[in-house]
Amino acid sequence: MANYEAVIGIETHVQIRTASKMFCSCPNSYGAAPNTQTCPVCMGMPGVLPVLNKEAVRKAVVAGLMCSCEIARFSKFDRKSYFYPDLVKGYQITQYDLPICKNGKIHIGGIGFSGEPLAEKTIGMTRMHLEEDPGKSTHYSNCTGLDFNRSGVPLIEIVSEPDMRSADEAYAYLCALKEIMQYADVSDCDMEKGQMRCDVNISLRPRGQKEFGTKVEIKNLNSFRAAHRAIQYEIKRQIIELENGNAIEQDTRGWNDELGETLVQRTKENANDYRYFPEPDLLPVQFTDAEIDAIQASLPELPAAKRARYVADFGLTPYDAQVLTSERTYAEYFENAAKAAPEAAKNTANLFTSELLRSLGETSQTLAECKVKPAHLAALAKLVQAATINSKTAKNVFAEMFETGKDPDTIVKEKNLVQVSDEGAILALVKQVIEQNPAQVEQYRNGKTAVIQFLVGQLMKLSRGKANPKLAISMIQKEINGN
Ligand SMILES: [Zn+2]
Questions:
Q1: Which of 443, 437, 483 is nearest to 459 (CA)?
Q2: Residue 400, domain extent
Q3: pTM value?
C-alpha cells in the first residue's frame, strides 16, 4: 500500500452573540417559537434597507485579533446569489474579495483526541469574513418546515489553510477555535444550537508529493466527534479508491452519523455559480489604526497562554491545565478559587477536575447553577492541604457542599470530621486492628504485604474515616514489624 498523506482544511461558521441581528433590530436569540423573531428586513421584503450591526463588526475584529489576523482597514459587503427556500432574498449578504480579517493562525497542541499529547503545530487561517445566516430548514417525512428566526443572524466564516494532516489535528483545531471564540466572548459556540458549524475539505496525496490531490468536501458535521469520525472514514475510503486505481471525484459529501459513512450530496458538474457583486445598500466598513489598537488592548488572555501560566505558577499538570481552560467559565471559576487560596491551587484544581466536574455531569448542571462557590472550593482545598481532613473525607464534604451550598469549615465542624493525626489516638486503633485480625497480620508477616490495605481499611472504619491514612499505614507496619 502506498503511503498517503491526508491534507485537511476546515471552513467554520460561528454565530456571533449579539443582542440583535446583523441588519435589523430583531432579537438574536435561540429557542423562540418559529418565525416569531422576524421583520420585513430579515424576511427580505422589497424596498427594505439593511442597517449594519456595529457590535457584530467589533466582535469579528476581536475574533480576528485573537487569531493573529491582519485586520482590514477597508472591507465591504457583497451579495452571493443562490436559490434555496431558507434564503428569503435570493442572495446572502457576505464578504467576497475584501474580508474583514485575513492571514491569521491558531496554535494546536496539548492533550489530543486520543488522550495522548499532540505535537505542537500552527494552523494557518486564510481569512475570516462577516455574513448573515439564512433561515433554518427542518425536513419532515412529508414536508419541510422553514424558520426565519435565524435569518440575518450575524456569522463569521473562518477558512483555515489546508494545514492539518490527521483527524486528531482537525479535532484539535476545532477545539482551539471554539475555546478562542468563547474566551473572546464572540460566541457561545453551542453546536447543538447551531452556533458553530463546520465543513471539512480533505484530499490525499502520496507522501512526499507537493501537489494536492482532488479534494472532497464533507458537510453535516454536527459535533467535533462527528468531524473526527468522518475524516477517519474519508481517509480510508479515499485510500481504497486510489488503491483500486480509481480517481477521486470532486464531490460534496454528507456525513451520516448513524451509518458512520459519507454519502455523495452533490457532484462538481452541478456546482453553484454564485454571481457575487458588491452590496449596494451598505457602506464599506472602515477602521483607523487607533480603533484597532483600542480593540487589541481589550483582548483577554489566550487559552494556550493561560495553560502555560497554570503549569508554571500553580504546578498543575498539563492535563489539569487543559481541562481548566477548556471552557472560559471553568478558567474564571478556577482563577477566583486560586485567588482565595493560592497555596492550595493544586488541590483546588484536583477537586475541580475530579469532584466538581463529575457532580456537574451527573446532575446536568452548569457551573453557573452550581451551589459550590469558588471560595468554598478553595476553602475545602485548604483543609486538604493542611491535612485537617483526608482526601476521602474531602469527597464526602464536597458531596454535601454540592447538595446544600454550605461552606466546608461548617460541615467539618458540625460533623466533627477533623482528621486524626494524633499518634497516641491512632496507636490505640492500630492495636485494636491487629488484635481483631490475626490471620491478616500473619499473612503480612509471611510477606503478603498487600494485605496492609485491608488493615488500613479496618482502621479507617474504626476511626469513622477520620484517621490520617499515611500515618495509619506507617504505624501499622511499625507495630507488626515490631520496630
Ligand atoms: Zn428582522
A1: 437
A2: 303-414
A3: 0.79
